[in-house]
Amino acid sequence: MKQKLQPIVEPIVKWYQKQEKTLPWKQDKEPYHIWVSEIMLQQTRIEAVKKYYTRFMKELPTIQDLAVVPEEKLLKLWEGLGYYSRAKNLKKSAIQIQENNHGKMPTSYVELLKLPGIGEYTAGAIASISYNEKVPAVDGNVLRVVSRVLASKEDVLLPETKKKITNKLLEIMPDEAGDFNEGLMELGEKVCLPNTVPLCATCPIQEFCMANKENLTNEIPVRVKKQKRKIENKTVFILKYKNEIAIRKREKTGILANLYEFPNVIRGSNRRGNSKELRKMANTI
Amino acid sequence: MTVYEIEVENKNKQWTWVTEKQMEKEYPLPTAFKKLLGKTKI
Lengths: 285, 42
Known about the structure:
- The complex is a heterodimer.
- Chain A is α+β, with helices and mostly antiparallel strands.
- Chain A is built from 14 helices and 4 strands.
- In chain A, α10 crosses α12.
- Chain A starts with a helix and ends with a helix.
- Chain B is globular and about 25 Å long.
- By secondary structure, chain B is an alpha+beta fold.
C-alpha cells in the first residue's frame, strides 16, 4: 500500500508551501500557539475560532499565564466555544508543564501524549509542525483525503480504520513532516471537500486519486451513522429581582461542569415526576 | 424548552444574583442559556 500513497507526498508539501498563511495561528510554529489552536479547532469551525484564539493569546500569552489563570476567567474566555473540558485540560496540562518541565512544552510526540486532553492527533500536529517529528496527525480531513486517494470503503468512524490510515502515513512521512500534515489537512478543508462536489480539477494529487479515477468521490469516505444525540427538554426559570438575575453554578463534573446556568428542571415523560420537580423549584423562587 | 421569566419580590439566597453586565463579564454561561436572555415571554 505504501506505493499508492508515496506519490502524494511531494505534491502536497509543495502545494502547502505555496498556500497563503493568513490564519493567526499559522504565523509561527510556536508549540504553545499550535497547541491552543488545535484544541480550539476540535469540533469547531475555523471562522469561529479566529476571534477566540486572538483574545485567548492576548489574555494568556504564555504557558505560565495559562497555568495560573483562575478557572472562571478561563471558562469566560472559552464561553460559546463549547466542550469546556478542552479548556480545563489546557490548564491542567499547563500546570503539569510548569511543574515537570520548567514551563517548556515537551518536544516529542510520546511526551506530548502524556498531557491531559492531548490525543494522538494533537500530539502529532504539535510534534510535526513545531519540531518536524515524522508522525502523522490524522483528523477528519486527513481521513477523507486518504480514503479517497485509496478509494477505501472502510468506515472512517471506526478506530481500526483510523489506525490503518495512521500506519500507512507513518511509512511515508517526509522530512517536512509539518508541511505534509498541514498540507493534507488544508487539502481536505479547501479542495477535497465533504458533503459536496470536491474541487478535483484544482487538486495537486488528482492523478493519484483512485476515487477520482473511479468516480467514487461522492461515496467516499464511508461513514456509518452514529447514535442520535441525547436531547434534554428543560423548563427554565429566569428569575429577576430589580436589575439582577438568578444563576447557579453547575456540578463539578459532567457536561458543562462548573459553568453557570439559570435555575431549571428537566422535563421528563413522567408527568407526576415533572410536577414534583416543579413544586420543588417553586418553593425556591 | 419552556422558559418562565418571573419578577420576584425577594432574593432567594439559594441562587447567585448578578446583573446582566456582571454575567457578561465574569460568569461563563453555556450558549443555550445565553440565548434565552431577552427572548422570553411570560
